[in-house]
Amino acid sequence: VFFFLMIRRPPRSTQGVSSAASDVYKRQVSTQSTWDFMEKKEFIEAKYQERFTLIGEDGKPQNMTVEHLLKTNAIVPKVGFMMVGLGGNNGTTVTTGILANKKNLKWETKRGDASANYFGSFTQCVTTKVGMKVKKAENGSMVLEDVFMPIKDLLPMVNPNDLVIGGWDINGMDMYNATLRAKVLEPALIHQVKEELMNMKPLPGVFNLEYVASNQKERADNTKKGTNKEVIAQLQEDIKTFKAKNNLGKIVVLWTANTEQYYPGTIETIEDLEKLVETNASLPPSVLYGIATLKEKCIFLNGSPQNTVHPAMIKLAEKEGTQIAGADFKSGQTKYKTAMGDFLVGSGMRLASVISYNHLGNNDGKNLSEPHTFKSKELSKGSVLDDCLKSNKVLYPKGKDKIDHTVVIKYCPFVGDSKRALDEYNSEIFLEGCNTIVSYNICEDSLLAAPIMIDLCIMAELLSRISIDSKPIGPVLAYLSYFFKAPVTNHKEYVINSLSKQKEILTSLMKACAGYVPDDSTLLSFHF
Q1: What is the enclosing helix (H) or strand (E) of 242?
Q2: N or C: which end of the chain has fewer CB within 10 A?
Q3: Radius of gyration of the chain (CA)
């Protein structure tokens, strides 16, 4: 657990300091801090001054300043991470990856020796700028330098090596053989954690063939029986038992199982949801898991594209005093696409069409080979460029506010988890010219998804300990939008898809909670 104490030191002599740095030092004497910061054993508290501009109906700006009290519980609980789809490619990769890091394992590959790491993880491997300092150069002059801090050091958060892993799967294979079946990781690594994985077996899962591809029936040999109400009760008992057995302070449940067909319509109220449960209506398993999780006052995260996070689920999370978030992991192709959208439109080019093709051979690809399940994925991938259209009416005026966007996914068993993603970006440029950029990405899909799953668990747990003006964040953890293709927010009319904006929002919140003022990047004080 890390605690931060900000100490204001008296300015040093400015003799020999560059003009800009000298000016900044002189101003330190008279400038009042716009925030206050306090750390105690139980919590971290920061007073933060939020600044933004409201534009009126007449187009005139109104600059706003709002004072906030940000409070973070500094006590990190013992956290359980329960995955739905534990025995699938993602679940086995996460489990083996955490064991490998915990034991600091090394293994041989055809490229040479490899060692455990968390590369690809936002919480473990990303840094963020927290300020600037004046540094003495070799020639004796004083120069400015940016100061960066690892995300994991900003606020107290759970170490991924300490996560307690559990969960459900419709297939009863033990985790060792399931990891071998996935063909994602090197056998030389898997064999080193054989004993631990052999002792792990998924709990029976919930299965409804109506919502997945018909080819999944052959895999379902470890399923729960009963009505909606009975199945929810069984899931609640699973969560209670797992919590008590491992002496856990908090549990995060993550859906990483098959993409489901969209539920027809929207479940608006808790009463509607309860009626569907009571009448034993055909409901997607993800909804049943969500209900059980929220009723146990645990956090529920939907990592697949189906419409699990209904308004009724959000209201249930609020009623139970817990949180929910989704949907669909943003890992490779889509993360790159949102970054490319930012780049092209931000460069003044009119992105006109994006064609995304990919094929893969894992069970996810097999499940997506049928039209009703693929439709869910197509919908979640289709909205990621919305911010490009809304942000620039010069390039996308009324009548031309559309990007031709096509998504194709094919199942090819031979390539296994090694997904191939091909994207073509066509942009209109100067004097009706056309610019075409083509990218081709090959990577084990689960090696991209696993760090994101770990990040989601860690960040969701952290956000559940933060309050803004004495109110908890939520019930939707919209600050996790950075990790999702189709993010759900507390205000359905305001959704952010821009990757850079999503990251800025999340890191700015964390810095503000830790007592750092997010930089406005004007560099006015340094005569840039």
Answers
A1: helix 228-245
A2: C
A3: 25
How far is 57 from 101, CA to CA, in rounded Å? 55
List the strands of the sheet with 324-326, edge to edge.
Answer: 203-204, 164-169, 79-84, 250-255, 299-302, 324-326
**Which one, of 309, 307, 313, lies nearest residue 291 by Cα?**
313
Distance (Å, rounded) from C-alpha 48 to C-alpha 37? 9
Where do we find the tokens 């971290």? 44
Task: Give the HSE-up count for residue 527: Cα atoms under 13 Å, Cβ half-sphere.
Answer: 8
Catalytic residue selected from 238, 328, 387, 423: 328
If one counts every other C-beta atom within 10 angstroms of the C-beta of residue 242, the result is 18
Q: Which residues contact 171 (CB under 8 A, 6 or more apart)?
A: 87, 178, 202, 219, 220, 221, 222
Q: Give the model's pLDDT for residue 373.
A: 65
**Annotated catalytic, 485?**
yes
312 alpha carbon, distance to own chain's centre: 22
The residue type of 404 is D
Verify whether residue 455 is a known catalytic residue: no
Instruction: Point out the catalytic residue in the list 330, 381, 419, 511.
Output: 419
Q: What's the CA gap between 506 and 491, in Å, rounded?
A: 17
State the catalytic residue, choosing from 71, 315, 377, 381.
Answer: 377
pTM (predicted TM-score): 0.89
Contact 69, 150 (CB under 8 A): no
Cis peptide before 327 (omega within 30 of 0): yes
Out of 250, 315, 337, 485, which one is annotated catalytic? 485
Instruction: Give the separation between CA 301 and CA 450, rounded to whole angstroms.
Output: 14
Both structure tokens of 423: 């994207």
Residue closest to 424 by CA, chosen among 400, 407, 412 = 407
**With the CA atoms of 519, 524, 526 and 527 taken in that order, what torsion angle do they form, in degrees rounded to the nearest 10?**
150
DSSP lists the bridge partners of residue 17 as: 142
Nearest to 452 by CA among 309, 283, 326, 306: 326
Specify whether the CB–CB gap between 155 and 514 falls below 8 A.
yes
Give the C-alpha distances (Å, rounded to integers) separating 483 from 79, 87, 274. Answer: 20, 22, 30
| pLDDT tens-place string over residues 158-187 | 999 999 999 999 999 999 999 999 999 999
Dump pLDDT digits (tens) for 343-359.
999 999 999 999 999 88
Between strands 466-468 and 471-472, the pairing is: antiparallel
- Asked if residues 128 and 503 have their Cβ atoms less than 8 Å apart, the reply is no
